[in-house]
Amino acid sequence: MELRGAAAIVTGGASGIGAATVAQLRAAGARVAVLDVHDAPDADVSLRCDVGDEEQVVARVREAADQLSGLDIAIVNAGIGGMSPLLDLSTLEWDRVMRVNLRGGFVTLRECARAMVDHERPGAIVAITSVSGFLTDRLMAHYSVSKAGLAALVRVAARELGPHGIRVNGVAPGTTDTPMFAATDRMRGYRERVAGRAALGRVGSAAEVAQAAVALCALDWVTGQIVAADGGVSLASPIDPMDSM
């Protein structure tokens, strides 16, 4: 796909990975609408939207596509985190995370795909999942399950939407220096510990994850894939014999 002149929607594009993706898409010549609960002054179009609210998503995607005269790219990025021991995890907290990460991701993907089909244009959809969707992170059951579900949705959507010329892929970040990750700073030594587990020996940046998302938009023969943009943190194994040497 040619990014110059493409019309794109990025959810959660006011900060973090979303904002970095907006910057890179615009630098490549795309016109970008951001759907976020906060304003995104660096976007071509900024629309307030809570992705957990279906009516808002339906209306804002339609509005964004109208303002952009169509839709070629959708980055399903908006997400929230949370930590709780499983035995203490309330259904209220479970639903809070699922509402945004999985339900919101589904509604956003569906509405963006509908816009692409309605305008009779092929397109690229990239969902930001997480390595937590296939690794086992204690205290993060609701977050991990939401991201695993989003990854499964990517693969189903890729099969269903392929006949319309719509490619659907995912990017699974690992430890990335974003406002969400900053919440772990209260855990002494956590940042250094996870950086040490990455093959590249550090925490990643939002811009580096955004590079993977933008690249997937341009790869015309790739669909249904989840690319781990994690600096190799998901390569670590608890039974690696070299850890005992």
Task: Looking at this protein, list some descriptive labels.
single chain; 245 residues; alpha/beta; Rossmann fold; 7-stranded parallel sheet; two-stranded parallel sheet; 9 strands; 40% helix; 17% strand; globular
CATH superfamily: NAD(P)-binding Rossmann-like Domain
Q: For the record, what CATH class applies?
A: Alpha Beta
Distance between the termini: 48 Å
Q: Helix amount, in percent? A: 25-40%
Enter the CATH topology name: Rossmann fold
Query: What is the CA-based Rg, rounded?
Result: 18 Å
Q: Determine the structural class based on helices, strands and strand pairing.
A: alpha/beta
CATH architecture: 3-Layer(aba) Sandwich
Q: What percent strand?
A: 15-25%
Short recap of the structure:
With 245 residues, the chain is α/β, with parallel strands linked by helices.
